[in-house]
Structure formats: structure tokens, C-alpha cells
Amino acid sequence: MSENHSSGVYLNDIPKEQAWERFSQALSSFGLFKALGSEFIELENALGRVTAEPIWARRSSPHYHASAMDGFALHSTETEGVSDRKPKVLEIDRQCVYVDTGDALPDGCDAVLPIELIEQLDDKQTIRIFQAVPPWFNVRPMGEDIVTTELVLPAGHTIRAIDLGAIAASGHAQVSVARKPRVAIIPTGSELVHPQEDPLPGQIPEFNSLMLAGQIESWGGEAQRWPILPDNRESIRTAVLEAALEHDLVMISAGSSAGSEDFTADVVASLGQLLVHGVAVRPGHPVILGVLEHNAGQDEETNNPATAVIGVPGYPVSAALTADIFIQPLLRVWLGLNPLDPPMMDATLTRKLHSTAGDEEHIRVTLGYVSGRWVAAPLSRGAGVITSLVRADGIFVVPAGTQGVQAGAKIQVRTLRTHAELIQTILVLGSHDLTLDIMAQYLAEQSRRLSSNNIGSIGGLVALSRGEAHIAGSHLLDPETGEYNKPYVRRYLPDTPITLMGLVKREQGMIVAPENPKGIREIRDLQRKDVRFVNRQKGSGTRLLFDHHLSTLGIAGEEVRGYTQEEYTHLTVASAVASGKADCGLGIRAAATALKLDFIPLESERYELVFPTGNLDLALLQPLFDLLHDSKFKRAIELLEGYDVSIMGEMISIDP
Amino acid sequence: MSENHSSGVYLNDIPKEQAWERFSQALSSFGLFKALGSEFIELENALGRVTAEPIWARRSSPHYHASAMDGFALHSTETEGVSDRKPKVLEIDRQCVYVDTGDALPDGCDAVLPIELIEQLDDKQTIRIFQAVPPWFNVRPMGEDIVTTELVLPAGHTIRAIDLGAIAASGHAQVSVARKPRVAIIPTGSELVHPQEDPLPGQIPEFNSLMLAGQIESWGGEAQRWPILPDNRESIRTAVLEAALEHDLVMISAGSSAGSEDFTADVVASLGQLLVHGVAVRPGHPVILGVLEHNAGQDEETNNPATAVIGVPGYPVSAALTADIFIQPLLRVWLGLNPLDPPMMDATLTRKLHSTAGDEEHIRVTLGYVSGRWVAAPLSRGAGVITSLVRADGIFVVPAGTQGVQAGAKIQVRTLRTHAELIQTILVLGSHDLTLDIMAQYLAEQSRRLSSNNIGSIGGLVALSRGEAHIAGSHLLDPETGEYNKPYVRRYLPDTPITLMGLVKREQGMIVAPENPKGIREIRDLQRKDVRFVNRQKGSGTRLLFDHHLSTLGIAGEEVRGYTQEEYTHLTVASAVASGKADCGLGIRAAATALKLDFIPLESERYELVFPTGNLDLALLQPLFDLLHDSKFKRAIELLEGYDVSIMGEMISIDP
Fold it and tell me: ipTM for the complex?
């Protein structure tokens, strides 16, 4: 390989189209931007492989004139003039011959009379027939299905189970398929540990190579994972050199940015051509594209003149999207497949998106069909939030240079689930509750997907008023009346008949560390200087409850240390306390129990499902409504501490 | 197993819903109609497997407060009041600590100032900062992605590559997945031979087990294929007994009807319960459903109290549809997956369908988007025509008891290809020509599917007039003017501006056996009593040409032996001659050459593509139009004998 040592690294984001162009042209110059070659394999191993050549029929099917019935083969002229009233007796083996379905038509025969249409006579040597038949009656003529030399399947076709049958029927026991692209994945990073180990703070479980290998495999490639390498230029260089010999593509996971421990660009530049360092795509921008040329003699294993190299960013979402953008199309070229034409859908964006200047951004969204239109709600944009990919129903690409996208805008979303799955998705927005996770599991058995996005109780009512959710989860206490939800529904949804359906009563209280080391007993203790509080976000029911308590006690927010520190769920509040980030937070008992924390109860609040009364008739929601009367479900909820299911299924109608 | 020998076999078609009900209830009574059980596997083997239990997070991700940048960690209070005009110097390791991205936030720190926002001073012991930051600035708080105890994935979820990352991130190195259903496939039939052998007439290559195994595998099961068994009750019985011990399902391929060599029903009845023999579905009706109970002691291998048995019909299309109707749903139950909700599409039926009385019929159709609507054209209904499944874009189910379905009816089609594939399908109806196969291969490289259905030249023009095709292939000679196609276009499409685009000139002639043993020289020879002719179907250009020749010579159709014997393509005509079914047929030279037959030329005819002139602007068709000027494509056609590409791309406009 060439040894033009680069002096250092740089990061120079270019548009992804330009990066792809540069990469594919460099590969082309080595003859590497085309199908990799083929291999002959047995049909029984061919499922899911890609045909490397058109398949032409070597044999007709059937390859002879075959009887289509059990019966007697004869020549149609023998039946001329025969009818019910003019039956005819035929001599077996002279005028007719018994055949089973699939038997070859005997010489001199051109039709088959089914056994049930004739009479077998007692002498066993003759039959009586009662009808005239045309030539080729009940015969499958040779070539009925496939005729020799006919095209059975084109090249570049992914072989399905039924194709196996057709290929075999046309006379082939083997098939020429595209060789699987071989991909090496080298995870680098001194902070990485095997996912089986329990990581210390600062250590990161290495799972990107697992995920990338899964992507390679599902796209038709063959992935080999290297052991984790420390951030050491020489060991990375050695591994890349070794991997390049036997693989079509070497992926170096992490170290692709421009930090002090980022060696990927340097290694690629020192071994071959560093084509691209940095692509203007978020998440994912520190991407490296390069190519390593083999010296003569080194290419015996692969017969490739060169090997492609891709440096993949370390954040998991960035890694997955980088693979999607650069590796999937490359594998398709190598397999002889057409570029993917992903399914798209028009949808309405629920929330305003601010854009990162200059970069194209790939926003993960949930999708749901509400009130006659598809709505797309953005998920977390963090490159480290892999659950945003797991939960995503689609990807919305904000083009580079866009100032932002307004709420309510019509957007084009690349869908990641089938229409059938999406149309059965129940969107529950609003307040977070653990029972929704249990509900999701039960509904999955009823062919419903529960997609719950936590945006706080008031956020849920607003989403409902905008037609962005089927149901809002809400636990909003009105301090003046002591009533839950109803006064807020009147305020946020004044013109719509609304139904409140009881889900659970749940204990709200103060979540503190085990054994309550700071001796916190009541809200007033939060004024102490040694107590760090963690708050919930504005608009959440828990935040309203807390503010209500503060105002009742005449305490200002500023008097509480950590008042501006906001978390979005009960579990992240509990997690903040468990980790020592805070000493106390307000939340439900179940969250404290889950993380083995102490709990000081304050309130038993009413958590209700809120929806337009018209939704009572939606077929989509019936399994959810039924669930509220399901004793197995109730018992599952009661197993979580701090829940009371006595109000489950109670309905309150609120008319405008 | 029980030994209630049945005296014989019967075939009693019942609706498929009733058959399924009987089958599932019998399996339920053995506790066999639920998920089969689970196994713990390493994540690296889990792609495509189905979660057996909900996955709850065992660890938060990140599991500590992590720096989101390379820079200096500090406590946000250190930055109070700092600005560009009021910078501050901090002592390294006392007031701030250097961290890389992903490092744990040191004790006492709650924010990170990125390296590019600070000034490193020469003493190497201090930095200067220029801005105030809030708590948790550039920190990924513990649990940002996943919080311990949170639901990561529900049960019954098919694991994707990104899920592997999320499962590992949440602290699992292994995952509990549904055990793969084990299915034995026993091919039976004395007429069967291995597909590698060259079958004699009456022998059938055994490929149904290959296709069924592929189906099982793509549905998440594990298939084991048995060697071919002859039609012998005892050997089938022994194999079923042996297979039942180690499998959840035993499939017996063929022999499921009620013929003299059909032992499946008898074997099932003798070993266990024969629940269903015959289902009112076409293709597919001789289906057997049963269950074998294990005696105590025999179930050690599987722990199953019983084994399901399915007898699958022998015709390949019947076999594939039987698997689709009964085995796929059973595997989904066993894997803990919800019933499949197949994608459906509304379409307009192109041709009238006559129904088989009483039976539900599964019609394979091609789909295309023409003039703003989806059209569905039925393919061959033969149970032996596996290419009808390979070519099918969708399945239309005609309910039992329907009299028939009219042409133009709005129907619901279950689609077998993605919307993106279907929308890129070019429908060419009309006359068959071998060049269309070559064209299909070239267009596949341009992301277009060419779907050509042979309905004869006049059929193509009629389809065009009804908006059922994008293009018609036509070679219709007008005997009066000697012109091709134009007079017919005027007649069949009087109101539409039409373009004729030249494809090829091709030699039409008489196809005869090698060395022309009957000494056929001219059309007149077809009047000879010893010459059997094979004709093309009415409405085909070749039929018109033949009839034109006959009338010129004053010969009546009845004078030609075989005049009423019709084939639908050039290749099936040639195949009829090659097999000795006929001595002569009219067709193109390429068909004769393909099957190594002799050819007596009669005519050089003009084969043209016919379409509404408006279609010239359809983006869908541009790659096809471009192809007609592609020298590589022209050369590929010239390699076939009997073609002249000089007219390729010539355009003639016909205005109303």
C-alpha cells in the first residue's frame, strides 16, 4: 500500500452527495464500483441470495405431455359422437390406458377421461364412456409452465422461496449468485468494554460493531467483527492492513473525528487515499471515506486491486445512519442490485424544528394516523440516543441550509414500518406513566402498537386539540377546585366533546436516596442549601403539583436549589437521585421502587386518558378500551407499587 | 401414538376458516397452539429472531454523566458572571479538569466547556474562559437514552440491527428469543426424481420440498428435508413416526388427494387424528390437517405432547398456497408473533373471471399503474404453473360461491411487491416477442420492471383502449394495404393520438422438426392428412397472418388438421413441434432456433410498440425509449437469429 504519511487530521464537512461521488469515483478507478463477481451454489442455499445472471430455462416444465387427472388416456377421435344416450365401450390397453395424475400421455393418446366420468366394467378389460372430449382435454401440455430457453428470472433478483421452485422446474439444480461482500468491522477506543462486562463510569459497552454487523448482514453482506482495539495508531494500522487483505470493505468504528485520540483519518491517509473526512449530515458528520490500494502479490486472497475503507462515527445513531447512507448503497452496487427506492409518506409535522446551520439533518419521527391525516412527531435528536432509532417509524431529512421547519408543515417521511403496522398505531401523547409500557405489551397481542411520546400533561392536551394524538395521558390538578383534568380540558379543548377515562390513581411524592441520608421530610426541606432538587419540565402534571405545593407554602422557585434543572420522565428524575446528581425529586412511587430509592408520599393523584368522545367509536382504540376491563391487565398494574386500579375504566363526559 | 386405523380415504372440501378452526382447536387441546418456548442466545446471533419476553433495561445508558465534548469539566457556578469582557482564569485539576467526549464527569463538576471555547495558557496549568454556562451544559446525563427498568422492546418483536444496539446498551449481552419451530418435510411419490437428474417422461423433478423449506425458513422456522419416498404406505408411515419425534410439524408433500397412490390421509388417520381432508380453496384443495399424539416416553426430545401434521398437495402452486394459508399462521403463533396483516391495494380487474363453483379461488395477478389507476391482470390459474407465482405482483381472492367477477370490477389485491417496485412497472401487453425478455433484463438495470403478458396483438390494442397497459406489442398485417398495425390502430383506438415505435423486423415462417421429416415446403402441405398443425390463438398477429395465407390460397381452416389446436406463444408452438405433438406451426425464426428446429421463412414482419402519444412524456417509460437507441441492446437482439433491428426507434404518429 502507498505510504504517503499525512501530517495530521482535519475535519471538513462536505455534502453527502459530493462525498459519495468522490468515493464512488475512486472505487471506479480501481474497477471496484460494480458487482463483485459470482459463485455457483446449490439451490437449497440460495434463499435470499441475488441472481448474478439471468436464468434461462434449460428444460420445459412439464417436459412431457402429462395427464392432469387420474383416469383413462385415449385419442379424442375415439370419443366422437359419444354421449349419455350413445355411450361407447372401449377396450383397455388397446383403445385406452389407465394413467395417474402426472403420468406421461401414452403414445397415440391426446386426452384423458377422469376416472369419475367413466364406468369400469366387470370384465376388468373394458370401460364405458359417456361423452365426447376435444384433443388435449385434461392434459398439461409440455411447456405449459416453462418453455426451454425462456427467461425464468432476471439478474439482480433476490431469490424468494417460490423462485427456488421455478429455478428447479426449469432444469437447474444450482444457481449463479452474487458473491457476498466481505466486510471487516474494527471497533476502536480505549474506553470500550465488551457488553458482557459491567462498565465503570467512563467505560462504554461496545455494541456499535454488533449493530453494524447486523446491518451488513441484513443488506446481504458478510461481516467479521474484530476484537476491540485501544486508541493506538500502530495497532489500528496493523489491524486495517490485515483486514484489507481478505475483505472488500474495512470499517473502523469510532475515532473518526478530529480529537487527540482520533487516529482513523491518520491511519487511512498513511495507508492509502483519505477521500473524505467529514460529511455535512447530522447525526453522523465525522465520517471518513477512503480506499487502500494493494501492492501486487497481496491481492491473492480477494483478487481485488484495492479495498474500500469507511471510518464510522462513535455515537450509535451516527454510526447506524452512516452505514445507511454510504454502506447500504455500496453493498447494493456490489451485489448487482438496483439502488433502493425507500417507501415515502406525506405527513404533517407536529413540532417546530430548529436546524443546525449548514448540515442536512436526519430527524427520527413517530407516525400516526389521526383524524384523517398522517402526523409525524420528532423524537430525540441526540446522536447517542439509540432508542430514537428503535422507536422511529420514519426518518425526515431536513435539507442542508434550511432555517428550520414550522409546526404543521407538510413533510415527506421515509417510513421504516409497513403501512399495516403504522395504521394500527395508537398515539398516546402527554404525561409519562409506567402503566403505558405494560399497556403497550398487552396491546401488541391485539395487533395494536402503542406509541407513547412523553410531552407532559398539558402538552398532551395541546396535541389533542391539534389532532396530533388519539389519546392524551393527563394528571393535572386544579388547585382551586381540587379536581383533576376537567378544568384543563375545558380550557384547552373548549369546543370538543371530550371523554375522561380513568386509568390509575398513583402516589406522588418525594423521591430520595436510599435511607434518606439528607433527612428530607417535607417540601420545606427543599429550601435547605445542602439539598439539591431535580425538577420536572414545565407543563408536566408533576411540575404543576410541585408549583402548587410551593405556592401554598409561600416558597419561591429560586429558593429551591436545582429548581431550573428539568427532567422529562419520572424515571429520569429517579435516576438523577440514584446517581447522586440530585438529593430529591418529585415523582411517582413506582419510579422510586424501580430504582430502589426511598419515597415520601405527598398525594394520590388521578391519571386519566383524555380523548375526543368521537374516538369511542374508533376500531383502532377498541382493544385499548377493552383492556381497561381486563382483570389480567389490572393485576399486572397492581404488581407495580403505588398504583390503585379502582378508577380504571371510569368515564366522565365533558361537553362543550 | 393412537392406532385407530381408518378404513380408507375421503376428500371432503370444507371452507378454509372451518379447517383452521378444527386444526387450531385440536392443537389447543394439546397445549400446542401457543408460543413454543424460548431460548437464551448471544446478541450476535439474534438478528431476525423474535423476542420471547419484553426486554426491560438492566442498566441506564449512559450509565454515568458523560461529557458530550472534548473540553474542560467544571462546576457551572465557577462561570457565574464570566463573559467576553470579563474573562476568568481557572486552575487545571483544581477548578477544572480536561475530559474527552464520553469521559465520566469528575466529582463536583456539572458542565463541560468545549476545548474550542477556551484559551489554554502557556503555563499549561491554567485556562482562560469567556462565558457563563448553565448546569449540565454539554453533559449527557445518566439515563439520557435508556433508564434502568424501562421497556426497551416488547415481546413478539422481530429483532432488527438497531435493536441489537439498544438491547446491548440496556445491559444485556444475551436475549430470550422464541425457539425456532422445527418442521420436517417428507416428499413422497414414486414418480419423483432429484432435480439434479434429467427426468424421463412421467418422472417429475422434486422441488416442492425445496420451495416449502424456503417458505418455512423465511417465516422464521427451521426446515429439515427428508429423502424422496416412494408411494408406499409403510415407508411413509415409518418416516412420519420418526419425524414426529423431533419436530413440531411434519409436512407430507403430495399424496394428499384421494387417488389409488395417495397414502397421506390413510397414514395420518392410522397414526393419529385426521382432522381435515380437503379444503375448498383453489389451487390447493387436497389439503390434510392432522395431529399425532405422542405416548409417554416418546416426547423426551421435543417435550411436545403431540406433533402437527399437514399433507400438502403435489402441484407446486397448490403447495405454496397451502403453506401460506395454514403453515405461516401456525408458525406465527409458535413464534409469538401477531397474525400477519398483509398489504392490500384496490385495483381494477382487466378480464372477466369465471369461478369454480363452491371453492374460494386465489388468482395470481400482475399489477400496474396506468392512466391514474391500478389495474390487475389475471395470470394463469393452473395449479402446476409455478411461474404464475413467480410473476405475480399480487393475489386476488375470489370468495367461495361467487358466480364470477366482471371485467372492470374494483377488487382488493394482496400485494406481493412494494409500492416502489409496482409503481416502476411498465406493462406491455399484446403479442409475445423474445426481445421483450432481453428488454426486461436491460430495464432492470434502470430501476424499471417490464411486466409483459401475452394476449395477442389485437388483445394488446384492446387493453390499450381500456387503459390497461402502457404499451402494446403488435405485428398486425393488413392484408388489403400490406401495412402493419396502422389500420388496426385506427379501428381499435379511433379517438386517441397514437405513436407506433419500431422495435424489430422478424422472420415469420413454418416451424418444423429437425431435418423436416414430413417434407413440408409450403402452406399447401398443411392440407395433407399426415401433417398435424399447431395453431396460435385467435387475435394474435401470427394467427391473422396464417388466416391471411389460407384465404389467399383458398384453403378452409377445417382442411388443416390441428387448426383448432391453439397455443399462446411462439415458444409453446415450437415446443409442440419439438415434442412431436405437431409437425408444423407458424412462428418466428428465433423460436425455432431456440429449440433447434427447422424453419421455412414466409414473411419479414414489422413488430412495433404501440402507445398513446401522451405516454411519450411518461418518466416511467423514458428508460425504455432510451434503450431503443442503445447500441449494446441492439447488438444483444441481433445475436438472436431472425431479427433485423434497422427499424428500432422509428416513430410513426397516428392522429384521430
Answer: 0.91
